[in-house]
Backbone:
């Protein structure tokens, strides 16, 4: 077994990555641990909010998201139940046994693997130390789990160098090259949380670089009057092409209300940065 650990500050982006895989049939959420509801009753919002509420307990933490992939030898064929059990054992040994976490079985590679999404902010607001987590905790856990479950050992195998964890590979959207909502969603995941825009024109200045445009419609339109928002794909001449998609149809719900809050927060941050010291 090979374990790959990545840390981040965007739980929304990591969760979207895995949920998008589920939506297109390339993954399945097989376990939700330390959640108040059973897996089948969890919506995207309830999965996300569990993490966000913990993150709010320690806003000083620069990295509060942990994304792990457990990779197995191509010869192995584990059931969902066994994968979930391996994930539980691994998380316990890693020191995350009491944290909420989601386990996704992915089907988009030539080897069996699962992804685990969690955060490191505990109920008392203290952080679980992520420094050298792979060496300190993950490697000993991996070796113990290989013995416990009779897994193919990764020690000394070149395949260990071939695994990676790349949540989002964002490029310019090309109409017809990928399913529209998925393509737009990948861009939104990257741009909405990595750029400090404070108005719709500022946001579109970035989105347009990826051939995506956020549109409120004309002032006379129903969508404008109802404070709605559409996302469109742009062609090579920066003209809208294809069918616009409502903001409410995306997992992370990047609606006008959501954006206005981001505008307010980002404007505040800009003002602080501009103040003379």
Residues:
């Amino acid at each position: 077994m090979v374990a790959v650990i990545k840390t981040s500050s965007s739980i929304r982006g990591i969760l979207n990555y895995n949920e998008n895989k589920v939506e297109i049939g390339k993954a399945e959420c097989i376990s939700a641990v330390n959640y108040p509801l059973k897996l089948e009753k969890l919506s995207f919002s309830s999965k996300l909010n569990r993490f966000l509420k913990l993150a709010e307990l320690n806003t000083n933490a620069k990295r509060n998201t942990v994304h792990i992939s457990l990779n197995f030898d191509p010869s192995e064929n584990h059931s969902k139940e066994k994968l979930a059990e391996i994930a539980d054992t691994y998380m316990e040994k890693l020191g995350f046994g009491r944290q909420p976490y989601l386990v996704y079985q992915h089907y988009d590679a030539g080897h069996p693997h699962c992804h685990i999404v969690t955060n490191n902010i505990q109920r008392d607001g203290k952080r679980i130390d992520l420094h050298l987590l792979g060496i300190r905790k993950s490697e000993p856990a991996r070796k113990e789990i290989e013995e416990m479950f009779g897994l193919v050992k990764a020690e000394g195998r070149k395949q260990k160098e071939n695994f990676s964890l790349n949540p989002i590979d964002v490029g310019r959207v090309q109409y017809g090259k990928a399913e529209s909502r998925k393509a737009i969603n990948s861009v939104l995941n990257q741009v909405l949380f990595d750029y400090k825009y404070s108005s719709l024109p500022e946001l579109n200045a970035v989105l347009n670089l990826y051939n995506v445009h956020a549109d409120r419609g004309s002032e006379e339109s129903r969508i404008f009057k109802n404070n709605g928002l559409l996302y469109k794909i742009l062609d090579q001449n920066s003209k809208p092409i294809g069918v616009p998609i409502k903001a409410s149809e995306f997992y992370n719900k990047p609606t006008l209300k959501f954006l206005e809050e981001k505008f307010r927060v980002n404007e505040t941050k800009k003002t602080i940065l501009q103040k003379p010291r």
